[in-house]
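Workshop exercise sheet. Pairs work together: one partner reads the sequence aloud, the other fills in the structure field after running the prediction. Swap roles for the next sheet.
Pair: D.N. / O.F.
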Amino acid sequence: MKEPIVADSTCLIGLERIGRLDVLPALFEPILVPPEVHREFGISVPWITLEAPADRGLVTSLKMLVDDGEAEAIALAHERGWRIVLDDRRARAVARRLEISIIGTVGILVRAKRTDVITSLDALLTELEACGFYISDDLKTQALRLADE
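Structure field:
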C-alpha cells in the first residue's frame, strides 16, 4: 500500500525538470496539492489531486512565516495528518512545529532507489543540481550512503 502525501511545488518542479515526475506516483498515492502549489507548478498531471485546505485562518497565519504555496501545503498536510514533501528549511521547521511528518525531494529519490524505482541516485542528484536545485554536500553524501551508492 502506498503512502498518501501532500506535495509542495519545489519537488514537483525539480522532478519535472529532470524528467522523473514518475517517481512520485510510483511511491505515493494519493498525492494532494493545494491550489497555490498547483498554480506555482503550472502543469496538470492525472495522478495529482487538487484540494484546498479548509482552515483559512491557519493558512493566513502560515503565510506570515512561509510562501503561499508552502502555507497551503502545510495547512493541508496538518488537516489530513499526512506526510508533506518540503525542501525549504524554514518551511520544514514550521511543519515540524505542527508535528507534520516531512520528506524532501532527496529523501524521495533515496526511497525510489531503495525500492528499485530508479537505478542511480547519484546521476539524478547531479541532474537536479544542474537544474539549479541546491543540495548540500552533507545531504548528498548522506543520501548516497543511504542508497548504497
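Discussion prompt: The domain at 1-149 is CATH 3.40.50.1010 (Rossmann fold). What would you look at next?
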